[in-house]
Amino acid sequence: MKESYGLVRDDLLRSSALNPVAESRSCHTPSRPDPCGPAESGRGSVLGTSLSWVLLLLCSSPSVAAPTEREERRKFGAMPEPVLGESITDIDGSEAGEVEVDLTALVGRTGGTNLWQGSIEIESRVTDHLGLELEIAYSGAFTSNLPERSTDLRLLASWSLLHDFDRGLHAQAEIAWRFVGEIEDGANLGEPRLPFSAGFRVGLDRGWWTLRLGLGAAAGRGGSAHLIPVWASTTAFLNFGRGRWASLGLDGEADWTRTNPFTVAPTLVFNGSVVHIPGKVAIVAPYGFPAGSREPWFGLMLRVIGEFDFGARD
Predict the structure, then answer these.
(1) Residue after which a domain boundary falls, among 15, 34, 63
(2) Element counts in the chain: helices (H) and strands (E)
(3) What are the DSSP E strand ranges found in the chain?
(4) At a CB cut-off of 8 Å and minimum separation 6, what does 259 contact?
(5) Residue 140: predicted pLDDT
(6) 186-242 per-position pLDDT tens digit
(7) Which alpha helices (DSSP H) does 95-170 contain, by range?
(8) pLDDT tens digit sequence for 64-100
(9) In this structure, how many other beta carbons lie within 10 angstroms of the beta carbon of residue 72?
(10) Residue 92 and residue 165: Cα distance in Å, rounded?
């Protein structure tokens, strides 16, 4: 066995010693100097080694690694969200563990009648796709069209369908059930009038501006004021500064289960994450258009949003 190994080693050494001679002879001609001389071959070796090191550094450097979804989202922060046409959990959220708590206060007036409402919403992204929300609202008004006091409880769920961070495109499906509360005929504040609703929402994120669209249907006791019981939502935001510290938007809501389906709501959102505060503050001025026997409605809303992430992976 040792003799065989020695013969193989001698053959390898002999062939490696002969190859440079063969290459050198093939490069020589009687009329011109040797282009494969020691200087050229040394320069080529140094160049090849340098290129190898550069490629190795580029492939191993974390700065050129493909950004994760979380890093893509942090370039501008999460998409600003309307108060009326809000999605169930962040539409661009893609990782479990995100929790949001919303506190909302509303005062409004219609036809000489004052009304108010307070609500708390707790949202959680249970898995990377599934989001759940519980909403509790308490309202009062001095009018025969609305109960004097009303408590609403809603359970909502969402399922992420698409996250394309390169194009800034997101989509999800949603369902909602109001299992406690009266059927009211007041202004459209983004919640379908009937107890059961389902639909789809799409978000387009272009950094300095964003667009949200929603479409769905509602059903349940109370009946629809129009032939087709559908709802629709459109919101556009202009975003300012690094991290989108402020966003100014216009929210449009339509709910054809109501006699007066249309509401517009200028919205201003301040993002606290740019100063390391995990939350936002939103100010909204909704206006409900008159229709049939319904008079115009206007109000003022204030929402304080707390955002927490219990599933950070970096």
Answers:
(1) 63
(2) 3, 13
(3) 98-110, 113-125, 130-141, 149-164, 169-180, 196-205, 209-219, 230-240, 246-255, 262-271, 279-284, 287-288, 297-309
(4) 185, 225, 291, 292, 293, 294
(5) 85
(6) 788 888 899 999 999 999 999 999 999 999 999 998 889 899 999 999 999 999 988
(7) none
(8) 445 555 555 556 678 999 999 999 999 999 999 999 9
(9) 17
(10) 9
Lookup: tokens for 161:
């369908």
Helix extents (H) in 199-312: none
Shared domain check, 81 and 45: no
Q: Which of 280, 96, 92 is nearest to 202 (CA)?
A: 92
Last residue of a domain, one of 46, 63, 80: 63
Q: List all residues 6 or more positions away from 96 whose beta carbon is below 8 Å from its beta carbon.
A: 125, 126, 127, 128, 311
Claim to verify: residue 115 and residue 245 sit in the same structural domain: yes
- Give the domain range for residue 99: 72-309
Task: Give the predicted TM-score (pTM) of the model.
Answer: 0.74
